[in-house]
Amino acid sequence: MYLALLVIFLHCSELYAQGKVYQVFTFNGVKIKVEPSDKVKNGAPMSIICHADISKNTDFQLKHNFTFFKDGKLVFMSISDKEDARYEIPMAKSADTGDYECRVKAGDKVVISKPVYVWVAGMTKPVLTADKKEVSEGEIVKLRCELPEEVPPLEFYFRKIKTNSEPIAKRVAEQNQNFSEMEYYVEAGDNILQFDCFGKRQVKSGWESSQHSNKTLVTVKEPFRKPTLITKPSNNLTEGDIIEFECSTVAAEMRGIEIIFQKNRTILNSVRDKGFLKYSTLATQEDSGEYLCKVEQGAVSKTTKLNVFVSELFPKPTLSASMTQLDENKDLILNCSINGSRRANFSILRKSSSGDILLKKSRILAIKVNVNDTGSYTCKAEVKGIVKESKPVRISVYAPVSKPTLSVVSGSPEVVLGKPLQLICHSVMGTPPITFTFYKGDEIKKNVTNDTYATFLDEDIGLNDNGGYKCDARNNHSSGVKTSNILNVTVIVPIRSASLGSVPYGEVEVGSDTAFLCSVKEGSWPIHFKIFKKTDQEELLYEAREYSDRTIWHKKTMKRRDTGTYYCMASNRASVDVRSRPITISVILAAWQKGVIAAFVLTALAGAGAVALWWFLRKKKKAKGPSMEMSGSALTPSLASEKLTRPPSDGNYYSGSGYIEDNENHMKSTDESKGPDLESAEVDYTEVEVSTLDPHRDSMENRHSRIYGHPDAT
Question: Where is the segment annotated Disordered (predicted)?
Fold first, then answer.
């Protein structure tokens, strides 16, 4: 029975499993909308509605998690079985402006809506407060403007409103708070002040402004009144009248009061801790203009202005001169006059850095001038205590120029070819300015106006520029132009292309003489020649100063240690050393020394041959017996006879060669043909022919000898 019940239970479970349906759903989308619209007035109610569009395979309940975001920040959450959720805002504020989006989660699925921008139009009205209701001129009033319920960043604008003038606004940006503060300096004349403020915030469409705040009234007290400025007898006067100024003010507290009286920027008088100031002077035409009376106390300053006009009593005098430029020892007449021939007290003066020098109390001055009388002169006229001065007149007295001297700045009257030449022209006497004129030949090169000298730089020096420089000097003296002597300048040609040669060239026998020739292709005389041998310290062998383009040095009795490399250097007053190419000299054994060595070697060889022959014949004789001795004795005379009949050697054979001539006539270097050191090498001769010297041929060779290795050798 139990088995039957078990079978029935399993069968029923299988039937139930076959009838069960899985719950399947999917999001078709999530949308967000705003009621009543996406633009709401400040203070009005607003609803943000999130709707999830979901499809299901059957009708079953599904939990929805709704999350609302504003500008990426979470603002509201809701869990519901329904597919809609509402975020209610009873009174919308400007801070509620922004991008809204909704995220819906169901099961393990999440979908986010597209953002919707909501603009809450209008801002809350700002509130303005002041720390003082009554201030004095020069004090500071502090204002605070606040935008309740607004969220930064915000901009605040404070306005100062004065009667019968445009409001003056100041801007302050606040990044982290919804209020701002501003300090205002109360200026003189600010009797009753009003302040207000408003705010701004940035939205997508631009800037949005709030209403203006309440107006705050601030009463201003005066610490002292604006000063009063008067003149006596009036502000229209004539030169010579006494003018008196009075400046006054009324203050609650005189302590710290300062009255300053000035014309333009010049302070004429001042008093402290007093409410009254006086200033008087003899009126002149220069006293016309604007005067200021300024009263200051702490940071408060008040000013009153007054214009004064002073008419002319008489015009300025005029100084005239018989001549303004004249030679020394000439007569000069100065005359001082007033237009209209009015009577006055005249005086004539000379201007000086230390003060004016009175020359004469008269309207006319006549003097015989010298160069020290050069300067500026004026005259003064006095009427009723009013003194006026004329414009200065410049008088120039000239002494004649002396004959100028022309010289070279460097001192020496010579110049290196291609280098610039600087000349100086100088006149010892003469009143400046002096005009100097430089000539090269008959051509004017330069005009210079200076005090006592002038310079000229000639950068175009040619080979033929050996003279013809002169200069003129003149000033405003009537004597005219003075001319210098003609200056002759020597042009120094620098050394070019030095070369060195020798006789004999290349190889020189021990004990013989050698001639060295150093020459140049171009260069001014005299020329300084030096001949060196290359050593560790560059050994100087010979030097000479020649009025020629070459020099010859005879070296007596050459030795083996004279083997080496030689070169020469040449220089002149151009101070440029020119070095030749080096030549190599090898000192070898003389011909007679070679002959002695050859004779010694031949004698040794002959002796060795005779010994060898004797040994050979003796050995042969022992081997063949007496018969061979006879034949040997018969052979010996035959060999001797043959040896005596051999023809003699050629007596005209010469070792070495005749002279060697350079095909290009240039200096020849023997560095590549250097042999081994003759002093250290062993002598090994294998064949030597000794010939007798032909006196006639030797004299012919000497006649045709030359300096080898030198292009100028002849």
Answer: 626-714
Rounded-to-integer distance, Cα 602 and Cα 583, Å: 37
Q: What is the DSSP letter of 94?
A: G
Alpha helices in 21-74 (DSSP H): none
Q: How far apart are CA 708 and CA 500, in angstroms?
A: 10
Q: What is the DSSP string of 416-473?
A: ETTS-EEEEEE-SS-PSPEEEEEEETTEEEEEEEESSEEEEEE----TT--S-EEEEE
The residue count for the chain: 714
CA 180/CA 119 separation, integer angstroms: 25
Q: How confident is the model at residue 641 (pLDDT cuts 50, 70, 90)?
A: very low
Q: Which one-letter amino acid corresponds to residue 233?
A: P
Q: What is the pLDDT of residues 177-234, one digit of tens each?
A: 999 999 988 887 777 888 999 999 888 778 888 889 999 988 888 888 889 999 999 8
Q: What is the pLDDT of residue 419?
A: 84
CA separation for the pair 469, 423 (Å, rounded): 9
pLDDT above 50 for 701: no
Written as one string, the DSSP assignment of 483-529 is EPPPBP-EEEPPPEEEEEEEES-SEEETT--EEEEEEEEE-PSSEEE
- In degrees, rounded to 5, the angle at the alpha carbon of residue 400 between the alpha carbons of residues 397 and 403 is 155
What residues have CB less than 8 Å from 389, skipping those under 6 apart?
316, 317, 378, 379, 380
Quick one: CA torsion of 690, 691, 695, 698, rounded to 10 degrees?
A: -70
Is the preceding omega at residue 648 within 30 degrees of 0, hence cis?
no
CA-based nearest residue to 246, from 237, 256, 257, 235:
235
List Cβ neighbours of 622 (8 Å cut-off, separation of 6 or more): none
Read off the tokens for 683: 């002598």
Residue 670 φ/ψ region, left for φ over 0, alpha for ψ in the -120 to 50 degree band, beta for the rest? alpha
Q: Three-state SS string across 323-344, please?
A: CCEEECCCEEEEEEECCCCCCC
- Radius of gyration over every alpha carbon of the chain, rounded to an integer in angstroms: 63
- Are 422 and 500 spatial neighbours (Cβ–Cβ below 8 Å)? no
Return mean pLDDT, the chain. 81
Please say whether the beta carbons of 689 and 653 come within 8 A.
yes
The CA distance from 593 to 210, in Å, is 129
Helix (H) or strand (E) holding 544: strand 539-546
Phi-psi label, residue 306: left if phi above 0, alpha if psi -120 to 50, beta otherwise: beta
Token representation of residue 332? 């000069």
CA 311, chain centre distance (Å):
58
DSSP secondary structure, 161-224, as one string: E-TTS--EEEEEEESS-SEEEEEEE--TT--EEEEEEEEEEEETTEEEE------EEEEEE-SB
Asked whether the predicted pLDDT for residue 590 surpasses 80, the reply is no
Give 638's pLDDT tier (boundaries 50, 70, 90). very low
Is the pLDDT at 467 greater than 60? The verdict is no
pLDDT band at residue 312 using 50, 70 and 90 as cut-offs: confident
